[in-house]
Amino acid sequence: MRLGRVVAAWVLVVGGGGRLQAETVKSLEAEMPVSAGGSFGVENLAGALKVVPAPGPVVRVKATVHGESEVLAGSLSFATVTDKDGIPTLRLQYPVDRVREFQYPARGSGRDTGVEYAGRRVQISATRGVLLYADLVVEVPAGAGRGRLATRAGAIDAERLDGNLRLDTGSGPIHLSRSRGNLVADSGSGDVNAADLQGSFRCDTGSGACHVEDFEGDRLDCDTGSGSVVVLRAKARLLRADTGSGRVRLEAVDAEEVSADTGSGSVEMAVTGGRLRKVSADTGSGTVRLRLPRDAEFAAKASLGSGNLRCEYADARTTVKNDEVVGCRRGDGRIAIAVDTGNGGLVIEPTP
Asked: Structure pTM?
C-alpha cells in the first residue's frame, strides 16, 4: 500500500441541534495493487462512496475526512488488512478502541445504528457522538477479480464498472449505472437504483425499493424486505423479484423464466419476445396481472384463496374443478404459468 499526501483545512458547520461547531477537513490518499483475477476490498465506517473505473491495475482511494477537531481528523489512516474471509482489504482505520459513538450528519433521521468495525462494536448517529466520518472516491481497475466496496453508513454511487463487484452499505441508497459483470448492490436500509447494466445483477435491500432499468444478461435478482420492485426493460435468462411487502412491477421483460413473490402487494408483468417458458407468481394479498405476446401459447394453473381467474385470450380453454375456474390453456401450452394468491385474482391478457 502506498499513502499519498495529507491536506488539512478548518471549516464551520451546523452540528446537532443546529449549533455551529468547528470542523477539520483533511484529505488522505492510498492505493493497493490488485493482481489479475485477485480479490480485494475497501472498507469505511461512515461516509459516502463514489466508485469509478481506474486508469490502471491499481485500486486508488481518496478520502475527504471530516472531524470535530484536528486531532480526531488526524487519527484516521489507511491500512491494508485481511478481512474475515481472508481477502486483502484497504481499510480506513478509525479510533474505535477509544470512541464508541460516531456522528455522521448525512445519515438522516433514522434510528442510531450499532455496527461492528475492525473487531469493535460502535454506534453511528446523525446527531450524537463524536463528529468523525470520511467520504471516499474509489478507483477500481476493470476485470480486477472479486471486489467488495463497503461502508457501514452512507450512500454509494458507482458508474462505468467492469468486474465481479459487490457494493455494500449498512444504511444508505445505492445508485449503479453503465456497468457490466457479476454485480451486487446490497443495502441494509435504502433504495437501490440501477440502470444500463450487462451481465448478472443482484439487488438486495432490507427496507427500501429496488428499481432496475435497461438490463441485459444472464440473471437479474431483486430482493427487498419491505419495498417495491420495479424492472423496466430487461432481457435475461432468469428474472426473479421477491419482496416481503411491496408491489412488483415488471415491464417490457424478455426472459426464459420469470418469478415474482410478495407477502403483500400486487404483481404486474408485461413479457415480450418469444423465449418465455416459465412464469410463477405468489402473493399473500394482491392481484396478479400477466400480459403476454398476442401469439403466446400457455398452460396456467391458479390457486386463488379469494379472487377470480380471467383470461382475455378469446381462444383459450378454461379448466374447471368443483365448479371453480382453476386454470386456462392456449395452444400447445409451452409457457407454464403457476399463480398462488391468498387474497386476489389473476388476469392473463395480450399485451396492448
From this structure: 0.91
